[in-house]
Specification:
By secondary structure, the protein is mainly alpha-helical. It is built from twelve helices and three strands; from the N terminus they run ααααααααβββαααα. It is about 70% helix and about 5% strand. The longest helix is centred in the last third of the chain and has 37 residues, at about 270-305.
């Protein structure tokens, strides 16, 4: 909305909406303080959840860059918003009946309940149109929900086994004799274990989020967005397999210290960049496949418009 042309009534309504939403956020943060504290502690002490700290800031930035579209026409939707807030509170207590005294229990359910409160507050203060325009940032906040241990364990297992398969294939391609026994790979001079820590769940989540944002900004077709997002999953496994293979070969032919050096501990970013290099031409090709038909449609539309004079 252009504030320079907005009427005083509209400006006052917008100010009330912003104030009310800020009040809801402040009240929810105070009420869920123990949950948020437990969530931050989990992020700081667990590699699997380190991405969560960035999610709310990214969501805020997404709303900011689309603020004209989101806040173009706002209005209170108190009833549906209040229903969603109550659903969030109910979800919180269903996940953890001792919410106030033991906020660290069942973070997945309690954080999801908090997100429902925030979404309900947004809907109540800004209306259905604004909530629909801000649907992607609101859904993006779901990445704040920690995966339950059962699901996280299965994801890590899939990444772990996939990494073993890719590393095994690469060793054979390079002509390196290799023997596999479970997650153990034996090559001349060294036996390595592809442990659960080698699944690189943190860089895999970073790659998933990067692909999600890239698909959002550069692709319009839902199926192309989905295709590009799904690519992040096998590419995470390939990236991890390349990392294991590279470190092993360097330890054999260059220096055994590579298996325990800086590249092993902090080299995930290097292979993350490698994955981005692989994904970039795919994203460009998908984007150009959409740009061509769009430009032609605009040219046809321009030619069909009557000349006004």
């Amino acid at each position: 909305m252009n504030k320079s042309t907005a009427t005083p009534t509209v400006v006052a309504r917008d100010s009330r909406a912003h104030f009310l939403f800020a009040l809801i956020i402040a009240a929810s943060v105070a009420a869920y303080w123990k949950v948020l504290t437990a969530l931050v502690t989990l992020c700081l002490h667990g590699d699997s959840y380190s991405h969560i700290l960035l999610i709310p800031f990214i969501a805020l930035y997404l709303v900011y860059i689309e603020r004209r579209k989101v806040f173009h026409s706002i209005g209170f939707s108190l009833v549906p918003g209040s229903v969603m807030i109550l659903a969030g509170v109910a979800t919180t207590f269903a996940a953890n009946p001792y919410f106030y005294s033991k906020g660290a229990e069942n973070l997945s359910g309690t954080v999801f309940g908090l997100l429902l409160v925030w979404a309900g507050g947004f809907l109540a203060c800004y209306g259905v149109r604004a909530a629909r325009a801000a649907l992607f940032p609101l859904l993006f906040l779901l990445l704040m929900v920690p995966l339950p241990n059962v699901i996280l364990s299965r994801v890590v297992t899939v990444l772990q086994r996939g990494t073993v398969e890719v590393a095994l294939l690469l060793f054979k391609l390079f002509g390196v004799p290799v023997l596999r026994e479970g997650v153990l790979l034996s090559v001349p001079g060294v036996t390595i274990e592809v442990a659960r820590e080698c699944s690189s769940i943190r860089s895999s989540m970073a790659l998933f989020i990067t692909c999600l944002l890239a698909a959002r900004f550069y692709l319009r077709s839902f199926w192309k967005q989905l295709f590009f997002l799904v690519l992040s999953l096998p590419l995470s496994v390939i990236k991890n397999g390349i990392r294991v293979t590279t470190l092993t070969l360097l330890s054999i032919y260059v220096n055994p210290g590579f298996l325990h050096g800086d590249l092993h501990r902090d080299g995930g970013f290097v292979f993350f960049l490698l994955a981005l290099v692989i994904l970039w031409p795919i994203l460009v090709a998908l984007h150009r496949s959409e740009s061509g038909p769009l430009l032609k449609a605009r040219e046809i539309e321009a030619r069909s418009e009557p000349i006004r004079g």
